[in-house]
Structures are given as C-alpha cells and as structure tokens.
UniProtKB/TrEMBL annotation:
<protein>
    <recommendedName>
        <fullName>Nucleoside 2-deoxyribosyltransferase</fullName>
    </recommendedName>
</protein>
C-alpha cells in the first residue's frame, strides 16, 4: 500500500497544506484507517508516498517524487504535511506515472476529472516499489544477448515455470493446477514459439510474468541462468526442488519448497504452491 498525494502547482519539497476534506479514506480498506471521523494519520505515515503535481497541459515536463511523510498536524480545515523525498529514486515523469496507474491501483476514468486532475490524498492498495522495479525502469533496458520489450508489459495473471522438461510432467501439471486455483495462466518455454530463438521466448516469458517458479532439481544449468534473469528483473521467484543439495550456494539462504517425486509428494507440492502463490497475490 502507499499514499498518493496530488497537489495543484506541485509540491514545495518539504512542507505543504492540503484541505482535510480532500483526504479520502476508502471504507473498503478497513476501519483501522479512520480514527473517529478523521483519517488515521499515524497509520498512514507508515506507508511510502508518491507526491504528484496535478496534470497540466501548460507544463510539459512535470514529475512526481517518491518519499515518506514525516509528520502531519491539523491546522483549521487543513492538514499540514511534512515530508522528504527518497534520494535513491529519481523523479518520475508524470506521463510515466499515469501510464503505471492500472498497476498502481489508480483508477483513471475515461471522462471527467481523474485522480491526476484534482488535489487530494488517497491510499492505494498496491505494492509501489514492486511496480516501480518491474514496470518502470530508467535507463531503458538494452541487453546485447537478447531483446526486451519496450516499454515492459507485465501480466499480473501470468505465472511462468523454469524447469527441466523430460520426466517432469507431473510437476508441471501440479504447477498449472496451482496457478489455475489462483486465477493465473501458466506458461513454459516449450509451449511457446513467438521468436526464432528459444532464448528469446524464455526471456520474454520471464519478463511478462508476475511470478516465476524455478525447479532446481538436478542442478539444471538452464534453470540457474533463467532464475538469475528472473531475480534481476525483480520478479517474485518461487524456488522448488527435490533435493536441497541442488540449490546453488549463492541462493541457499533463500527459502524453497522441497517435494518428493511420488504421487503424495506431487500432491503436497500442489498444496504448497497454491498457498505460496495466494500469499504473493494478496
């Protein structure tokens, strides 16, 4: 979750005032976000924040900033907000932020005033940093071994599997059932042929997926390579294996799901994957 704060004429960079009536708390978020008739500012300050100017056609180079709210106090009918920007996150062009709106849980109507056309403060139920890491990148990614789509398009309902093919049919079936149970599609490189080179299909599948499952069983070099790509893209990676000794030393500290290759083990793998995917999706 994060705070979205939009201000006419932009933000000063340290302290600003906003009308208390423009602080919107959706009841669907739960009663904890209100203290009596007022927003629960103590709880809201714990969330990261995006400080955006109102969209103006007269200012072509508008940018938003990511930061944190350090204090709030009521002053008449206004709330005074003190804040600081995160120096490690560069300014986000407003056009880019608006393009990210669906991934950030920001509803932009086709007609009328949208969230970037009026000053307000609202809580959005999305993982701000995950979206910025996976869907907004500066500079543009330009690897030399393969090509990446520009701009990146991540499918929130796509799960991909990086695994050995031969002899792993029951494992793949369990992965597909776990994905379906969570409302997700599942993909594997051997059932995709969009490019002449298979590595391009593999990379595209990783790039588009929201969750990547990597089976390290047998110390498969291809899987290790693909898992490294998934980690570098900031994907949610679920590591599975039949043997803990097959997990490379560099990632041995990461949690994994261990399963047995018999009927009971595959059934338990499906249960474990279903639960883990559900956790990542909520």
């Amino acid at each position: 979750m994060f705070n979205l704060l939009v201000m006419a004429n932009g933000w000063s960079g340290r302290r600003d005032e906003l009308a208390l009536g423009r602080v919107y708390v959706d009841a669907a978020l739960g009663p904890q976000w209100k203290t009596g008739d007022l927003p629960n500012f103590d709880l809201m300050r714990r969330l990261p924040a995006v400080f955006s100017p109102e969209n103006s056609r007269f200012e072509p180079d508008q940018v938003a900033r990511v930061g944190e709210i350090t204090s709030t106090r009521l002053q008449g009918s206004n709330v005074v907000v003190e804040y600081r920007y995160d120096p490690d996150i560069p300014p986000i062009p407003l056009d880019d932020l608006m393009a990210l709106a669906p991934a950030l849980g920001i509803q932009v109507p086709r007609k009328g005033f949208g969230p970037f056309e009026h000053s307000h403060w609202a809580i959005k139920d999305a993982d701000l940093f995950k979206v910025l890491l996976t869907e907004w990148r500066r500079p543009i990614r330009q690897p030399t071994v393969f090509q990446l789509a520009t701009p990146q398009r991540v499918r929130p309902d796509l799960l991909s599997a990086m695994m050995p093919f031969a002899g792993f049919g029951p494992v793949w079936d369990a992965i597909q059932r776990a994905a379906t149970a969570n409302g997700m599609d599942s993909g594997r490189a051997d059932n995709r042929w969009d490019h002449p080179a298979i590595i391009q299909d593999v990379v595209a599948l990783i790039d588009e997926a929201a969750i990547v499952i990597c089976d390290c069983t047998g110390k498969n070099a291809n899987v290790f390579y693909e898992m490294g790509i998934a980690h570098s893209y900031g994907k949610e990676v679920i590591i599975i294996t039949q043997n803990a000794a097959d997990i490379p030393f560099d990632i041995a500290h990461l949690r994994h799901i261990r399963y047995l290759a018999n009927d009971q083990g595959i059934a338990q793998l499906e249960v474990d994957l279903t639960a883990r995917i559900r956790t990542l999706r909520t």
